[in-house]
Amino acid sequence: SATADSAGESLFLDADIQGGDGNAGVGRGEQGGQFGVAHPGIGGEALPILGETPRLEVRREPGRSRPRTRRRDGVLEVAVGPSAGTEIIRRAVRKFCAVELLESVAPAAGRHASALGVEPRRVRVGDFSSQWGSATGRGVVTLNWRLALAPPDLAEYVVVHELCHLRVRGHGAAFWRLVVATLPDAQARRRALRRASFALMRY
Question: What is d(CA 72, CA 50) in angstroms, rounded to the nearest whole number?
Answer without folding.
Answer: 15
